[in-house]
């Protein structure tokens, strides 16, 4: 079960990073019209540099997502076998032992 919890943590971390990137892109105001006092060339260079930074972060998140998916594929059999073991354990604990019951009475 710890493998499953680790995987959930990875996806939650990934979700937080994507949300943070989206908020920063929106807050950066790249969609706003021109700022006063800036030349078109300076504004274009600034926007280009900012967009390159966001693109780099997006590629890093994509690599993280691929690695997380590959890790899930690797541990999926371990998680499945662990869940089967837990189910079998619950089944044996939940079974009713008639001999034990009659001994107690």
From TrEMBL:
Q: What domain of life is recorded for the organism?
A: Eukaryota
Record region (Disordered): 25-47
Question: In its UniProt entry, what is this protein called?
Answer: CAP-Gly domain-containing linker protein 1 isoform X1
